[in-house]
Amino acid sequence: MLVHSRPARRALQILFLVLFLPVFALPLLVIVAASFASSWSGTLPSGMTLRHYQDIAHGGALDALLTSVLTALAASLAALTAGTWAALAAEKLGRRARRLLDALFLLPVAVPSVVVGLSLLVAFSRPPFLLNGTPQIVILAHTVLVTAFAYQSVTAALARLDPAYEQSAAGLGARPAYVLWRVKLPLLLPSLTAAAGLCFALSMGELSATMMLYPPDWLPLPVQIFAATDRGALFAGAALAVTLMAATLLVLFGVSRIRTRAAYR
User: Fold this and answer.
1) What is the pLDDT of residue 263?
2) What is the pLDDT of residue 139?
3) Of 86, 77, 248, nearest to 152 (Cα)?
């Protein structure tokens, strides 16, 4: 650690807890508590119940959760493919061209996501690319919004990658395609899995652009959470939020296991 004094370390740990609990942990604990409550008139919730989760099990929330997972998986795969491809291509470009490519990928992040949703709605509402009212336009919007994170993650990993591996393989007569698939991509696998997990988590929670684009038969769970809280069903919305959080963390845990094995290799 940067701080070698034991009292200073304890002071920093206490400061971290003081800042972490109210800002990060407490809101999540409040959501979890609200998901089991039937009323909340005092400091703590009252009337603990499982009815909200029973409604999820017997309602359309599971379909919405499946929709969110499928959207996030498709968007993450597309974003990882496009971001990795662009990062590998940018490695061979000059400085000015690379900066231009960086700006193009970061542009969807620099503007509000609702602007991205509106632009896709206008762009794909007429032939020959008529995607309005289809699940594909929702997946496309999520892909546009998260590709920048995959691109930046792979770009940073490429900058840290020792070129000696690639040079040694090429010196032994390996073709460029073989070097890419058998040397470079395996070395980038920990960063690729990290980028995939980040893209998945961001897609699972995306709401603004989704509200602009989703068709009635492709309802992601964040939209259902917003609808529940908008009509005043805060406790039901909290249960939906906990379900969304649990599903996201479960997938991220699986991705972290893959990343750990890849880093070990």
Assistant:
1) 54
2) 96
3) 86
Residue with tokens 């509200």, as numbered in its chain: 211
Over residues 114-146, the pLDDT tens digits come to 999 999 999 998 888 889 889 999 999 999 999
Query: Looking at residues 34-40, what average pLDDT do you find?
Result: 85
Task: Tell me the C-alpha to C-alpha distance, in Å, between residue 128 and each of 124, 125, 132, 232.
Answer: 8, 9, 12, 41
Render the burial of 79-117: b for 16+ CB within 10 Å, e for the rest.
bbebbbebbbebeeeeeeebeebbeebeebeeeebeebb
pLDDT at 2: 59
117, 164, 166: which is closest to 142 by C-alpha?
Answer: 117
The Cα 115–Cα 241 span in angstroms is: 25
Tokens describing residue 265: 């290799």
207: amino acid identity, one letter: L
Rounded Cα–Cα distance for residues 233 and 236 (Å): 5
How far is residue 21's CA from residue 15's CA, in Å, rounded to a whole number? 10
Structure tokens belonging to residue 126: 């007429």
CA-based torsion, 33, 35, 40, 46: positive or negative: negative
Domains of the chain: 61-264 (1.10.3720.10)
Tell me the β-bridge partners of 39: 46
Cα distance between residue 106 and residue 99, in whole Å: 10
Instruction: Note the pLDDT tens digit of each residue in 175-230.
Output: 878 788 888 888 888 889 999 999 999 999 999 999 999 998 999 999 999 999 99
Taking every pair of Cα atoms in the chain, the longest distance, rounded to a whole number of angstroms, is 73
